[in-house]
Every structure is written in C-alpha cells, then in structure tokens.
Amino acid sequence: MPEPLHQAMGFYGLVRSFRFEADVRDCEVYGHLPKELRGSYFRVGPDRAYPTLEGDTSINGDGMMSVFRFEDGGVDYRCRYVETERLRHERQARRRLYGKYRNEYTDDEQTTGTDRDNTANTHAFSHHGRLFALREDSFPTEIDPKTLQTLGTWNCGNRLKSKTMTAHPKVDPDTGEWWSCGVFAHKRYEGETTLQVIDRNGKLILEEEFMSPYPGISHDFAITKEHVIFPIMPLTVDMRRVKQGGDFYAYDPDLAPVYGIMPRGGSVSQIRWFKVPGALMAHVMNAYSEGHIVHLDAPIASGNSFRMFRDVSGHETDPAMGIPTISRLTFDLKSGEVSIKPFPGSIGEMPRCDERFTAKRYRYGFHKAREAIVRVDWQSGDRTVCALPHAPWGAQEPVFVPRAPDAPEGEGFVVCLVNIESENRAELLVLDAMKMDKGPVATVRLPFNQPGAFHGCFVSN
Ligand SMILES: [Fe+2]
Questions:
Q1: Choices 2.60.40.10, 3.40.50.740, 3.40.1190.10, 2.130.10.10: CATH for 5-460
Q2: Lowest CB count within 10 Å: 34, 143, 381, 387, which one?
C-alpha cells in the first residue's frame, strides 16, 4: 500500500505532522497575562513520527506532549514525543513498523508481542502529583512534568487486572478519586468493560467488570455524586473485518446508542441500560443527579460523529448527521424515560466545565465551535462567544482555570490554542471566562503551527 507522508485524515481534514521537538523560551506575549494564571498547561495529541498507511486516521498518531509554563510573568513552551514502546521500535528501525489504528494485522511481523496500540496521544492528565498521557486502549504513560521526559507505563503498581483505562477519567472534586473505566479491558473486543476507582493517593480501591450490550465505542464516561454513566455508541468491532486489514470500528446504523447507569455506591450488577436512538456522543461536558433524575450534558449528533470510521458496509457516513450540538440528556430512573434538550445554537465539540463542579449541578460549560470558542450558561440559557473568523475549526479544546481555588464557579480564565494555518503559526489565547466576547486578555504566540492536540489540563502552582 502507498504510504502518504506524515499525515492522515483527522476530524476536520488533513492533519500534517509536526515532527520536531521544540523549546521556546519567553514566548511573545501580547496583552496582559493575568497574575493569577501561574502553572503549566499540558496538552497531548497525535503526531505521526513515521508515515502511516493509506486510509489510516490521525488518531493513530504518536503522542506529542506539550506544555505552556506560566512563570514569573513569562511563558515558556516545550514539546516532546511520548517515547512509547512502539515509537522506540520505529526509531530503531528508522521506518514505520506499525500499521493502522488498532489493527495488528497490518503491522510488520517483527512487531509481534510489542505494545502496538499505546500511542499515548489522547489526554494529558494530572493526578496525585503525577502527569500521564492517556490512551483508551492502554495503560497510562507517566511523563515527568518538569522535563516532559517519558517515565514509562503505569498501572496502579501492577494491581490493575484490566489492560485498558479510559482517556477521559473523572476526578471527584471532593474526594480526589480518579474514576475510570476500561473498555475492552482484556482486548477480547466482546464488550468486556471494567469500572476502576483510584484514590487521591494513586491506590486502586475498586475494579469491577461487566459486559456492555454490544462491543461498541465508548470514548468518554461520566460520574455524578450519586451515579456512574457508561455511554456505548454504535461503532462496533468485528474481528473478521480487522483480520482482513479493515478498520477497527465501523458505524452500524441498525444499532441504537445505549447508556448504562448505576448507583455510584453500588455495583456494576445494578447497571440499567437505556437505548437512546439518535443520541450519539463522543465527549462529556458534565453530569449530575437530582434524586431519580440524571442529567448528562454532551455534544450529541443524530448519526456517526466519529467520521474517521465508515459504516459496516464500507461507505462514508452522512457528514450532516455527524455534526454535534451541545445537549442535555435527562434520564428518569423511575419512569425509564429519556429526553434530549439541545442548547439552542451550540454546535460544537471538545466540551469542558469548571472541574471543581464535576459530578455536581453546575452552571457554565465551554466548547469549541467552527469559528469560535463558546461558553454556555445552563442557568440563563445564554451563549457567550469569542469569535475567531480567521481560523475556522482552528480552535482546539478550551480549558478553564479558576482565578483562585475558592473563586465562584466560572470566575477565571479559559486557555485555548488556535492554529492560524494561513500564517503557519499558532496562538494560545487567554480569555477572561466571564468576558469571553471581549476577546483575549493575552495572546501567547508560537512561531509555528501546532498539530491538533486532543485534551489537556492546567496544573496551577
Ligand atoms: Fe476525547
């Protein structure tokens, strides 16, 4: 098969690789950096170090971890590849060895028995003072937060029975617990899933296993103070297709999305499954419970929003049906009814919230849109928009940073990296979260474009 250069199809078009590791001391800053913004903004995303196979997706790229460090009135930037086992092997061979996304049958023979899936490219996540690069089909990879040096994979001191941990854990702001799930936990691809809870010190305190109704994609999950929610989406794994060199996932329009809900203090044997046709999601903004009512806020699409994957017949899916709108899914655990209420006008993805309110009733959410970074106010129904007309789809994930640990909800800053492709450069915007429509209070300029990172975190000093 021909090997295109270091690029692949991403969410919004062709994604070119960056391929160099960089340090920029004292980045150019325009405007005024808020004195309260002190710490490190970590991000990780896919960046193919070697060419990949035709038809592969950008989510198969090698993890590139970057950091903007806000210190002493200045900002320093650094990025480094996550030195995964697969990247080490490819560097040794000086060529591509691994094939398509989660398809070992497209690999070179010499890779047999190596950790071929873990590209560590999905979420820069901090917990109990440690920094991890997460990837949903693998163990977390620990990274030195000062140097970005790769320290190795981490699996709760070898206590974890699962082989996978989600790239979208939830941290309870009161207990500090790291709630996680392991999808295809034993890599049998039959729907075997685990619930995992790690305490604030990094000790595994719960691991329970269940089977999902079908072997579907489950990219994110949610907790409330009273419940745990497992979304299973109708992009399924069929190992016959995979063994023939096909895609790992394919969209099955005959299946409905299902949402499993269990009491948080209970057991996975108590999961109730709700079929919700036309409610397909990738990411969670937040969730909370009010007695027997459970709210889950997420970008919801009526069809396949994982457009890098075709349908089970091998056809591309309808792009219009894959466009997500921020919506509230409400589950009534007594009546069994489910409602979907879109937030008017809020088409977009990469949702976040003020994570001091994770799992609780909350007011503000943030997301990217086609030409904007948006704040939604669930209380008033208002949207506040920071327009980016020069950078369609150029905004990456917006991350909220509180002004102070005890500041009221939503008082603080939103940091968001924006690519300006026409000028081959990138800007990190710092917005006042309460005045997003006024534009950035500060802009940190990088003299090069950035590969599209997925998810990150801000660790305050
Ligand atoms: Fe994600």
A1: 2.130.10.10
A2: 381
